[in-house]
Specification:
By secondary structure, the protein is α+β, with helices and mostly antiparallel strands. It is built from 22 helices and 42 strands. The strands form 12 sheets. The chain has a 7-stranded mixed sheet with strand order 28-31-32-38-37-36-35, with helices on both faces.
Amino acid sequence: MRVPLSWLREYVDVPADAAPEDVLASLVSVGFEEEDVHRFELSGPIVVGRVLAFAEEPQSNGKTIRWCQVDVGEGEPRGIVCGADNFHEGDKVVVTLPGAVLPGPFPIASRKTYGHVSDGMIASAKELGLGQEQGGILRLAELGLDPEPGVDAIALLGLDDVAVEINVTPDRGYALSIRGVAREYSHATGAAFRDPGLRPWDEVEPGDGFALAVEDPAPIRGRPGASDFVVRVVRGVDAGAPTPPWMLARLALAGIRSLGVLIDITNYVMLELGNPIHGYDLDKLTGGITVRRAQPGETLETLDGQVRSLHAEDLLITDASGPIGLAGVMGGATTEMGADTTDVLVEAAVFDPVSIARTARRHKLPSEASRRFERGVDPLVSAVAAQRVVDLMVQLAGGTVDLLGGALRAEHAGRDIALAAGFVPGLIGVDYTAAEVEDALRLIGCEVTETSSGWSVIPPSWRPDLTDMWTLAEEVARITGYDRIPSVLPLPPSGRGLTPAQQARRRVANALAAAGYVETPSFPFTTAEANDLHGSATGGSLPSIKLANPLDGQAPFLRRSLVPGLLQTAHRNLARGLTDLALFEVGTTFAPATGVAYGTDSVPPLAVRPDAATLAALDASIPPQPRHVAVLLAGNIAAKHPGRAAEPAGLGDALDAARVIAAAAGVEIDVAQSERAALHPGRTGVLRVSGTEVGYIGELLPAVAENADLPGRVVVAEIDLDLLVSLAGERVAAASLSTYPAATQDVSLVLDAGVAAADVRDALVEGAGPLLESVRLVDDYRGHGVPEGRRSLTFALRFRAPDRTLTAAEASEARLAGVAVAAERFDAVLRE
């Protein structure tokens, strides 16, 4: 909200010597945010001049200029070249003398042009920053001004005014007006406030005879679309009359473009009182006005020239011809005031905030009017605002008040809020006295009545945001000063913090980062083909969730796997010359069940809390969303060094990453050979924890890597992190390090080549018993000395007892027990 200080001073006593920064500091003290200071971008000397004489001189380019003699109060006239022809001898005009700077910036200097030395420039309203051209040169007589030559035109036209800009939060819509800001400045400084919204009813009572109706049989939230509606009629206006410079200056500083005197007046009153006003060309109306919801198939051409298809919730202003405006948002083109308008119907109303907000967003049509209506306007100021417009149209556009008019008024009973005596100090943490609480609430306009338990408080009509004792407490804190609130660091209650699952996910991410992987979050959107390829082992057609309004039309599905996102990230990095990649992502995937319909066709009303059944239906419409962790390796895992060749990333490195993840989660992970649609056969493994499949690991098929524009070998691993964490359970304290030495032995077993090494390892662990501390596969041999169709697996075994030093015989006995179980299950024999 931009607030010209000359305008603010009309309603509150701002010191004459107060700088804009002082005013901003006062407004900041009562809860507003400082934005900026705005001034007219011009400087003097800019003075009043009188045209003594001029000679018209046709030029070879077809243009006729005037060589003027202008009295600027210096005794001797100045010669000035001017291209306009709308002024006469004796006219008072605005002259910018050499040394002046106009908006642009456009410096003025004496210069030779059209055969003369022009010693200045006669200015138009546009050149001064006062709006659009109004027929050429600005003639002061048309503005009702008759100053002496040489008078400072900057001060005369209000171009020395300055505006302060504040940010108004959505709950304080009353401050989107000079009236509201003046009241807040009074709260901050104690300066006297004069409320422009207080006028006796007999001064603002509209006439009668104009037909008005509100038809809203199914209102939103049970509230009718329009609660108050006032219309007034002004006849015989001159739509071509100039807007006075003081109004132009204030509107320009407030950020409003001048659109002619009639529209300027309605905008001026909206800024002054906070109640948006709309004017209709009365001759273009057909019959009376009805406020109603849109009907199927209706359209409306709004003032911006767009034809809009209307929604059943849209609140309309209509006459006998149909829709003539989107209520509270924008008027219609058919009844627009224009240059030929002579009779005006002035409308001031109060519309339902929710309805206006939805319409503005639905049609992507924010406006100054909707901005105020959706925050709530004072329901008691409509008649005052309409009368203010009528007064200005009579004063500035030469109109005559007509007794024709009408009004629909609703009862606005104040909300009675019970405020307990100790509530405000207890909530804010400041020892406010009862008198301080009462005085603060009365200062903002509340009616305060003392009760046995505290107070009964009725907020003022312009404060719809005050709805309960908490908002009242905020007002007490704001008015008495935020600086009184102590700075106390709150102590967190015990037992709070990250959940065990959150801690586990954080450990996994930190462990991968510490292992040299780079986290690369990606968008969860992909194609149906990528979901089918990477979302399951078989690669068949899978159920996927399709977005109704996707960001990218080529990727409208929610991902079932993190791998497609990592492939895109890898491609972008390779395209920028980064060839050695170790990437990971922790994120949500979407795994809809086969045959289950997700989503909902109906959205519950936004202003009503859904009931339990509706919430349950919404929850059921959401597919399962397990968190996964995935890694991708491409290029070299170790760069080339002197004396050492580069080491390309391989399947073993991805397996190491899987073990890092498992260790961080607190489990042991096993791998067994398997197959997967997107991965190379023979270079694919399934990851298990205690027999439960938790993920996979493998090398991408060359064709899949090529389709992703990734040259060379690419290995990936993906794990269901939620499942992994659930299998880990609660973490226990780490075991103490044993002080007894370990006994190490190796075992080589010859068995069928189709037996998985992980199964053999499990058999050794089971047979060796509790003395076996660790077992690790160190060799897989197939060749000379091993029969066709069989292979030799060598495991390194480490034994340790918690209470003694093991003997070689005890270790050998445990080793042979493990071999016996492997022999029984897989026909394994010790290799000679």
